[in-house]
Amino acid sequence: MRAYRRLRGYDESSRVTIEQLDRLESQLGLRLPEEYHAFLTRFGTGGFGLLTPGEVYLRSRCDMSGERAYVSLPFAVTDGHGLGCCPEDEMLHGSVPIAENGCAFYTALAVTSASAGTVWRNDYAVPGADDLFCWAPAGITQTDPVTPLGFLSWIEQIVAYRVPRRPRRWFLPRRLR
User: Fold this and answer.
1) Are 57 and 22 in contact (CB under 8 A)?
2) Where is the Knr4/Smi1-like domain (predicted)?
């Protein structure tokens, strides 16, 4: 983790306070998964592209209805589709967005039902599918992992993918080769 933070320019000011998370939980009307809560208070959002608690609250509003009631409904995804507040499946019931991937693509954290604590993302469906978009367990590639990952396992996968195991020789200064 230390190497990743150094590589990605981690900033200590990105730490999240317990008061900020408590405020978010009271605004949403539910308890956030413990792994997510602990990670944000220890490491914050820096270097991982995670949304701050304020951004989570703002992005968890449904564009169609303007409400956040969907967050407390049961989470369920079947064949890439979940129950959502929007016709485009932009926001899943029982989840909060934790990272924005651009152009209405999100990484979401399930916060209700048996899937609470698992990480999901909306993405383009595989070619030949009936729909253009689908929800899948978050991973580095669209096929990995097949099973949903918990929040910390998802972070570990990001770190393992992005941090080089050992430096390349051409990358080292000449005196260290």
Assistant:
1) no
2) 15-157
| Tens-place pLDDT, residues 30-44 | 999 999 999 999 888
- Give me the pLDDT at residue 75, please: 84
Q: What is the pLDDT of residues 56-99, one digit of tens each?
A: 988 887 666 667 777 888 887 766 666 665 555 557 788 899 99
Could you tell me where the DSSP H helices lie in 46-170?
A: 53-59, 151-162
Residue 131, both tokens: 């729909």
* CATH assignment, 2-165: 3.40.1580
Nearest Cα to Cα of residue 72 among 37, 121, 116: 116
Name the burial class of residue 53, with classes exposed (0-12), middle (13-18) and buried (19+) by CB atoms within 10 angstroms of its CB.
Answer: buried
Every domain of the chain and the residues it spans:
2-165
Angstrom distance (rounded) from CA 16 to CA 127: 40
Q: Tokens 């409400």 correspond to what residue?
A: 67
Confidence (pTM): 0.78
Q: Which amino acid is at 135?
A: W
Question: Please, are residues 83 and 95 in contact by the beta-carbon 8 Å criterion?
Answer: no
